[in-house]
Amino acid sequence: LAADDGSTRPTIFAEMTALALATDSANLGQGFPDADGPEWIRRIAAEAILQGENQYPPGRGIPALRESIAQHRLRHTGIAVDPSTEVLVTAGATEALAAALLAFTGPGDEVVTLEPFYDAYAALIAMSGATHVTVPLRHIDGAFRVDRAALADAVGDRTRVIVINTPHNPTGTVLSADELGLIADVAQRVDALVLTDEVYEHLTFDGARHHALAALPGMADRTITISSSGKTFSLTGWKIGWAVGPAPLIEAITAVKQFLTYSGGAPFQPAIARALAAGDDDILELRDSLADRRDLLVSGLRAAGFDLVVPGGTYFVCADATPFLSDAAPDGAAFARMLPGAIGVACVPISAFCRAGSETASALSSWVRFTFVKDERTLRTAIDRLSRLG
Ligand code: PMP
Ligand code: GLN
């Protein structure tokens, strides 16, 4: 990794959380819940520790968890997978992404992602030695949508992997069936693999429907679906994630994973196995409460004077800070770094999700991301402070 590509600096999330703590700010920067997931799930992990689930679990994950992941997938997408060969438990979605990119790509290959993109993608693509090519999500008619012509142009003979993310961090876009169809077409045209990062699969609002790319015709054989219990059960620190896909691809990812962490999360695996098997009550409760908190933050940001895109999913809302820019804070990055000290609110600039100097970085240079996965009091404090801007 070249030190000058930015990958060795603390992430924007760590930087903004440190700034939030130093300024006693309402931290709407880093996306993690400030209320832990269901107590009954946490008790299972606590019991597992006491009962002796403290040594290395199997490298692919404990059978009960792989079985639950397969059942959960069947229930939600209609896709049947073999838990013994087509499911791999990983240290969060992050390890699944890392192991897959290292397994499938190297120097000379191109990896296509949407832009803006979750920051880890750029760093992991750099680690693999591949070249990162991006397709803009464009801000059109109050939404962020895939630029179809740019997608067709970006994907070519050197494209080895296309990484998509739906529901999308940071924009909150839930990719439509049409957009996914287009991605499936280009992937098949050039015989590329697709990694689909679906960590927010359950966090959609207003009836927006999450579509699983792997269910599209011709995609089952070339798609690795990545998800994580962190977002679904508000247990982000447990780092229990997974990759699901065709056996030969899972085999290749496992080969890399065994030398990254080998295995992990012994007491958490049985807890997540039970959580996934338990039905959807907890998931639906989280989704409904997040929808209310999204509405609260959206109306607060609008009242403060921000233009924004109402997200169909995720933890995040993106807003244009143009009305508040000045010589001292001329863009979203400067605004985000100024805000904690000035009024006690932290957010994250969208430029952190873009390649330096890219067309998207410039189109969204005044935009910032706020998270609403915080308790109502923190959100109200932030809204009150933001109302004093301008
Ligand atoms: N992908 C996306 C789009 C994310 O937003 C995040 C983190 N919140 C991750 C992957 C990482 O997930 P995990 O914590 O399970 O590694
Ligand atoms: N995914 C979280 C976010 O987007 C942060 C995770 C991290 O700190 N790496 O805010």
UniProtKB/TrEMBL annotation:
Q: Note the CDD domains from the entry.
A: AAT_like (cd00609)
Query: What GO molecular-function term can you cite, just one?
Result: transaminase activity
Q: Which InterPro entries match?
A: Aminotransferase_I/II_large (IPR004839), Kynurenine-oxoglutarate_AT (IPR051326), PyrdxlP-dep_Trfase (IPR015424), PyrdxlP-dep_Trfase_major (IPR015421), PyrdxlP-dep_Trfase_small (IPR015422)
Q: Which residues form the Aminotransferase class I/classII large domain?
A: 26-386
Listed name of the protein: Aminotransferase class I/II-fold pyridoxal phosphate-dependent enzyme
Q: Which Pfam families does this one have?
A: Aminotran_1_2
Q: Which cofactor does it need?
A: pyridoxal 5'-phosphate
Give the record's keywords alphabetically: Aminotransferase, Pyridoxal phosphate, Transferase
TM region(s), chain numbering: none
